[in-house]
Amino acid sequence: MDETANLQLPYILASQAQKHVTHNEALQVLDALVQLAIVDRDLSEPPGVPAEGTRYIVKAPATGAWAGHIDHIAYRRDGAWQFVVPKAGWLAWVVDEAILVYWDGDAWSPLAGSLSALQNLSLIGLGTTADATNPFSAKLNKALWTAKTAAEGGDGDLRYTLNKEAAADVLSLLLQTNFSGRAEIGLIGNDDVTLKVSPDGATWKEALHVDRASAAVSFPSGAAHAATGAALAMLAPCPPGDIFRLDTSRVTTPRTYTVSTVSGDQLTLSAASVSQIFSTYMQGLSAVRIWNTSKVPAQSAWVIYDVSTTVAQVSNAAHIATWTNGETIRLGDPNPTGTNTLGMIAVDISGYIQTNFGVQFRQKGLLAATVVTGVGGDVSMGLSGSGAGNTAYSNYSQTNGTGNGGSSTVFTPVLSPISNTNLLFVRETLGAGSALSTCFVRLIGVYV
C-alpha cells in the first residue's frame, strides 16, 4: 500500500529518493483537509481569481476545470486545482453560510439536520441568549407545533403537558407587553383555573374562575355589556324565602313604639306590637332596622328574632345598651338616612344569602314576589334598593283590600352596616284602607 486509508496521504518508501517531495505532498493534502473551511458550496465552475489554498465543494453540473468532480473538495495549490473525494462522516464548515455540513456518502447536508436527540442540556437559546432565569429562551416571530400523523408513526394528536409540583405552586401562561404583565391564565396558587388581568403589571384583578371540583364558572369582577361596558347581573334562582312578612293589623310606615325595658340583646316594648316589626317567617333570613328617635342623634339596632309579642331580640346588645323606659322606637328610617329619603324600612338579608349560598356577598339585585292585603280598602307595599325618591316599585292590593300579588326586580347598591350584603328597603302605605294585613316580600332569585 502506497498511501494512507482515509486521507490518501502518500507514504515515504524506504528506498525512495527525494523523500522531501512525498513528505511535502502529504503536508499539502493535510493543509487542505484539516480544519476544513469551505469558502462556498454553490459554485459549479471555478471562481475567476481564486486565492491560494481556498477550498470549495463543487456543485453540479461541474464544468470547466471542475468537470467530473461533483461534490468533491476542490482546493487551489500552486496555481492549479486539486481534488479530494470525501468519505462518509467528513465535516466541513461553510464560511458564507455559517453552517457545519457533513458528507453521508451521497450528499452534503447540514449537521443540525442529523441530530435525533439532545439530552440534559442546561441552556437553549433560539435567536437570543438563554440564562439561569430563562434556561430556554426564544426570540422569533412565529412558532409551529403540529401533530405527528399516523402515517409517520404517530397518532395524529398533539397534547402539550405542563406540570407543577404542588397545588400551592403556580403553573400559568403569563402574557406581557414590553415585559409588563397584562394577563395570566393557569393554576395560580391552587388547582382551579384562573384568568387574571392587569392594566400595569402591578395591580391584578381576577376575571374568570373555574372550580376544579364542580366545573362551575364564576366572574369575580363581574360581566359587562360588550357595546356599552355596562355591568351585567346574572340571576341565580333560589328557594323561596320570606325576608319580610307581617300578618298583624298595622298602619302605614313609619310606625312608632315605646321602650319598656332592655336586658342584654332583648328589647321589651310597652305593648304587644313586636309582630308589627318582625315575624317568625323572617327568623334566620333577615334583620329589620329600628331607630331610637329619643336619642340625639337617633340610634339604630337590628331586630333578628321575635321572642314574644312584646320582646324582640337584636343583633348586638351594645346597640341598645343605653335605651331606657319611655323612649320612642321608630320602624322606618329617619329622613334622610343615607340615600333613604322615603322613610322606608331597611332590611338586611344576610341570613337568606348565607343559607342559600353558603357565603355572604354583595348582591347586585333581587327578584322578589310580593303579596299585599289590606282592611277596608286598598293598601300598597313598595320596594327599593336605596330608599331614594322615585325608586320604589309598588304593588297594590285590590280596591277592597283583597290580597294581590306581583313580582319586582330591585337593584340593591347600598351595603348593609351589619353584613357583607346589600340592603333592601320596604315601605307600607295605606290607600283607602284602614290598615295593612298580611303582606310579604318573598325572594325567589338573587342577581350576582
Write up what this structure looks like:
The protein has 448 residues and is mainly beta. Helix content is 5%, strand content 37%. It has two helices and 30 strands. The N and C termini lie far apart (94 Å). The model has no long low-confidence stretch (mean pLDDT 94).
Compact description:
With about 450 residues, the chain is mainly beta.
Question: Which features characterize this protein?
Answer:
mainly beta, 6-stranded antiparallel barrel
Low-confidence stretches: none
The percent range for helix content is under 10%
Which whole number gives the mean pLDDT? 94
Give the DSSP E fraction (strand runs of 2 or more residues): 35-45%
Category by helix and strand content: mainly beta
The first-to-last residue Cα distance is 94 Å
* Count of DSSP strands: 30
The value of Rg in angstroms is 45 Å
- Sheet with most strands: 6 strands, antiparallel, barrel
- Label the overall shape: rod-shaped
Lateral strand order in the biggest sheet: 18-19-22-21-20-23
